[in-house]
Design goal:
The chain is an all-beta fold. It is 0% helix and 58% strand. The chain is elongated.
Length: 121
């Protein structure tokens, strides 16, 4: 069974920091891209940051310079270091992985259950 287990969310004051982690189960043979998305109340889910297996990254303009995505391929884990948090960063953050399962025929996309990040002003 494929699992993406997120941790690290919580409540923080504006200007503070949080670090999110997402560990993918060993069901994966290879994970190509791992990413973080977020969805605020009443808004569409949006890409926050993504990292490929070979280290390329991209960020939403709204988080550039404040958030850093990183991966540990050996552990099938992705992190999101969030600094200088703002109230508008409040959302449910979802981990996303695109890859090939050990018994899979093609790469597919998988989602975690989400972790709440709340930034108070």
């Amino acid at each position: 069974q494929v699992q993406l287990v997120e941790s690290g969310g919580g409540l923080v004051q504006a200007g503070g920091s949080l670090r999110l982690s997402c560990a993918a189960s060993r069901s994966f043979f290879r994970i190509n891209t791992m990413a973080w998305y977020r969805q605020a109340p009443g808004k569409q889910r949006e890409l926050v940051a993504a990292a490929t297996r070979v280290g390329s990254t991209n960020y939403a303009d709204s988080v550039k310079g404040r958030f850093t995505i990183s991966r540990d391929n050996a552990k099938n884990t992705v992190y999101l270091q969030m600094n200088s948090l703002k109230p508008e960063d409040t959302a449910v953050y979802y981990c996303n992985a695109e890859g090939l399962l050990r018994d899979g025929l093609k790469s597919e996309e998988y989602w975690g259950q989400g972790t709440q990040v709340t930034v108070s002003s």
